[in-house]
């Protein structure tokens, strides 16, 4: 992918993230009866984007260390190990997904 295409894609992704965060912030501020400035939404979007980039780097490193070019569920679980609450939610979700697959009829 050319540099310009990558930059355009990144900008589209950031715009979509800003829009989604803006919707969530709007919903929550209505519930709480408070206001949020566009600057707050912009700062929150930048913080989330930085976190996404950090997670991306870590997941790619875990997969590369394991000799894979594809990120796996195990990589995500390894990343979540420091956050017990998140790890528990992800583990329950993964277990549910695996359980659903094994209950499907075979042909």
TrEMBL record:
<dbReference type="GO" id="GO:0003677">
    <property type="term" value="F:DNA binding"/>
</dbReference>
<keyword id="KW-0238">DNA-binding</keyword>
<dbReference type="InterPro" id="IPR029003">
    <property type="entry name" value="CENP-S/Mhf1"/>
</dbReference>
<dbReference type="GO" id="GO:0031297">
    <property type="term" value="P:replication fork processing"/>
</dbReference>
<dbReference type="GO" id="GO:0046982">
    <property type="term" value="F:protein heterodimerization activity"/>
</dbReference>
<dbReference type="Pfam" id="PF15630">
    <property type="entry name" value="CENP-S"/>
</dbReference>
<dbReference type="GO" id="GO:0000712">
    <property type="term" value="P:resolution of meiotic recombination intermediates"/>
</dbReference>
<keyword id="KW-0234">DNA repair</keyword>
<dbReference type="InterPro" id="IPR009072">
    <property type="entry name" value="Histone-fold"/>
</dbReference>
<keyword id="KW-0227">DNA damage</keyword>
<comment type="similarity">
    <text>Belongs to the TAF9 family. CENP-S/MHF1 subfamily.</text>
</comment>
<dbReference type="GO" id="GO:0003682">
    <property type="term" value="F:chromatin binding"/>
</dbReference>
<dbReference type="GO" id="GO:0006281">
    <property type="term" value="P:DNA repair"/>
</dbReference>
<protein>
    <recommendedName>
        <fullName>Apoptosis-inducing TAF9-like domain 1 family protein</fullName>
    </recommendedName>
</protein>
<dbReference type="GO" id="GO:0071821">
    <property type="term" value="C:FANCM-MHF complex"/>
</dbReference>
């Amino acid at each position: 992918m050319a540099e310009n295409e990558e930059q355009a894609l990144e900008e589209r992704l950031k715009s979509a993230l800003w829009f989604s965060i803006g919707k969530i912030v709007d919903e929550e501020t209505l519930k709480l009866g408070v206001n949020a400035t566009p600057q707050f939404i912009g700062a929150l979007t930048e913080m989330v984007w930085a976190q996404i980039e950090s997670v991306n780097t870590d997941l790619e490193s875990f997969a590369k260390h394991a000799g894979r070019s594809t990120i796996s569920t195990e990589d995500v679980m390894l990343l979540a190990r420091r956050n017990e609450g998140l790890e528990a939610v992800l583990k329950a979700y993964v277990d549910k997904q695996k359980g659903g697959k094994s209950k499907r009829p075979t042909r």
